[in-house]
Design goal:
Helix content: 55-70%
Low-confidence stretches: none
Number of helices: 3
Largest sheet: none
Order of helices and strands: HHH
Shape: elongated
Structural class: mainly alpha
Mean pLDDT: 90
Number of domains: 1
Radius of gyration: 21 Å
Strand content: under 5%
């Protein structure tokens, strides 16, 4: 554990800050959460149909 900490601190000094990018998962953004909530409300009100995709179609979408 101390070796990993020492390596991290050395990288902080060399990099001049944290040696990696800090990001928030866009899934949890306010905009996306509002969109998801709107979609759920439309579905529950019967105003939209469920989207049905095969595993192959989902994997293709993930590769894009």
């Amino acid at each position: 554990m101390s070796a990993a900490t020492n390596v991290f601190y050395k990288q902080v000094v060399r990099y001049g800050g944290i040696p990696f990018e800090l990001r928030v998962d866009p899934f949890y953004s306010d905009e996306n959460q509002a969109h998801l909530q709107e979609t759920i409300e439309k579905y529950e009100a019967g105003k939209s149909k469920p989207v049905v995709k095969t595993m192959e179609e989902l994997e293709e979408l993930a590769d894009e």
